[in-house]
């Protein structure tokens, strides 16, 4: 088989792989899909990674032939630009994909950067590849005809049907490019906005769909936040509908193997004395938020006040969503920086962020940090949390 034919074959197999990568990538990225196939989420991630690896192989075979290929493109500037673009996108995706796969072995800053590059090259690469495959297809080439008859240098330049200012092909190219840009622009804009600093954080108390009274008065260390305000953006995750909490349906229970069981209503709960701490927040999918000032009740304090009974080995956390749970060993639960948090950067934690009350376990990946926390149960036997049941590692420690 000659080089050209092999290149075309390579294109077809790569196009299919790229399509599957785009689909699995979209499922992994989308926050709405978290509740759709939670059981196969880890499998989708592994498929995504392995297809990425498979896509590297033809690329490696191609590299030694690249010089030869470039020579055939000497007179075709557009094709050369296309080649460089595609190779740049591929290299960015492969390197950042590699770093994301093994991000637990690196500092969180590495995955923050890798995730940005992976998203960035996807948001620009996918529309570009779609454009490329449309405008290079036989179907499109047929549409683009008839081409103008070749002019010789002596002919006067006449603009007519055969020689329009824009050929039909370039007109169609412009149309497809604009259509693709129009479809993708809102997504790209939304993704890009998530990296801009949050607006409107002026110390006002926000709760969105949650309606709770009285509102907690922030500690002096919270407003203004001693951490200086968080850096980075949360991706709001939920595996259920977002629960709406108000004075009637809010309760906070501490029970199980404790000496004093307790069920707090909101007005009692806001009276508990709170501490302030600054910590970072890491999701195992690669994003982080840094220097968040949390105000809440240290878990250790709550447990000590309740009094631990003999035989108590684990602490189980429940969410008001009725589905999500996680556990810590008693020793882990006694770490000083675990917090039952009520305020973030001086504001009531918003509904989609897990408010009014969420758990914060700074030293572990955030799947431990149960949102809409409404019950703490001290137990004797281990319980496997929501995401651990679905393939997440039982070891959630973030490497420091
Ligand atoms: N109840 C509940 N808590 C949850 C989750 C969830 O889906 N439901 N997702 C976890 C995961 S994987 C992460 S990364 C963080 C996300 O917190 P955020 O939505 O406030 O960014 O919440 C954790 N706690
Ligand atoms: Mo996460």
Q: Can you tag this structure with a few keywords?
A:
400 residues, Fumarate Reductase Cytochrome B subunit, 2 domains, five-stranded mixed β-sheet, binds ligand MTE, binds molybdenum atom, transmembrane helix, Di-haem_cyt_TM, cell membrane, electron transfer activity
Quick synopsis:
The chain has helices spanning 3-29, 41-62, 66-72, 77-101, 108-136, 138-144, 168-193, 266-269, 299-306, 330-333, 386-389; strands at 252-256, 262-264, 275-282, 288-298, 314-319, 325-329, 339-344, 347-348, 358-360, 373-379.
Characterization of this structure:
There is one protein chain. The chain has a 5-stranded mixed sheet with strand order 2-1-10-5-6. The chain has helices spanning 3-29, 41-62, 66-72, 77-101, 108-136, 138-144, 168-193, 266-269, 299-306, 330-333, 386-389; strands spanning 252-256, 262-264, 275-282, 288-298, 314-319, 325-329, 339-344, 347-348, 358-360, 373-379. The protein is an alpha+beta fold and 400 residues long. The protein folds into 2 domains: 3-145 and 169-193, Transmembrane di-heme cytochromes, Chain C (Fumarate Reductase Cytochrome B subunit, Up-down Bundle), CATH 1.20.950; 252-390, Oxidoreductase, molybdopterin-binding domain (Sulfite Oxidase, Chain A, domain 2), CATH 3.90.420. Helix 2 crosses helix 4 and helix 6 (138-144) packs across helix 7. It is built from 11 helices and 10 strands.
């Amino acid at each position: 088989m000659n080089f050209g034919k092999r290149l075309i074959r390579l294109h077809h197999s790569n196009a299919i792989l790229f399509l599957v990568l785009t689909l699995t990538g979209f499922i992994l990225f989308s926050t709405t899909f978290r509740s759709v196939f939670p059981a196969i989420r880890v499998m989708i991630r592994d498929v995504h990674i392995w297809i990425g690896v498979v896509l590297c192989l033809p690329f490696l075979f191609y590299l030694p032939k690249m010089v030869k290929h470039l020579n055939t493109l000497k007179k075709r500037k557009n094709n050369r630009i296309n080649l460089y673009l595609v190779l740049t996108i591929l290299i960015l995706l492969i390197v950042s994909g590699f770093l994301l796969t093994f991000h637990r072995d690196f500092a969180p800053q590495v995955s923050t950067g890798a995730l940005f590059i992976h998203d960035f090259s996807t948001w620009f690469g996918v529309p570009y590849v779609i454009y490329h495959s449309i405008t290079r297809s036989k179907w499109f080439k047929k549409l683009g005809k008839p081409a103008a008859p070749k002019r010789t240098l002596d002919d006067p330049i006449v603009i007519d049907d055969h020689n329009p200012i824009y050929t039909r092909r370039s007109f169609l190219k412009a149309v497809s490019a604009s259509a693709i840009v129009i479809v993708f622009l809102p997504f790209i804009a939304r993704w890009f906005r998530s990296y801009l600093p949050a607006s409107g954080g002026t110390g006002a108390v926000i709760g969105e769909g949650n309606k709770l009274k009285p509102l907690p008065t922030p500690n002096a260390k919270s407003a203004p936040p001693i951490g200086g305000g968080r850096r980075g953006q949360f991706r709001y995750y939920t595996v259920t509908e977002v629960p709406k909490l108000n004075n009637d349906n809010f309760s906070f229970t501490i029970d199980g193997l404790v000496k004093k069981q307790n069920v707090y209503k909101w007005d009692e709960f806001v009276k508990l004395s709170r501490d302030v701490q600054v910590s970072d927040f890491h999701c195992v999918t690669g994003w982080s938020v840094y220097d968040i000032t949390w105000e809440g009740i240290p878990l250790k304090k709550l447990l000590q006040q309740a009094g631990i009974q003999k035989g108590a080995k684990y602490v189980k956390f429940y969410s008001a969503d009725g589905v999500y749970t996680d556990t810590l060993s008693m020793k882990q639960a006694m770490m000083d920086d675990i917090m039952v948090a009520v305020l973030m950067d001086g504001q009531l934690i918003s509904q989609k962020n897990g408010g009014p009350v969420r758990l914060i376990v700074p030293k572990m990946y955030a799947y431990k940090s149960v949102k809409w926390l409404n019950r703490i149960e001290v137990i004797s036997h281990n319980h496997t949390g929501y995401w651990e049941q679905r393939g997440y590692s039982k070891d959630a420690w973030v490497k420091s």
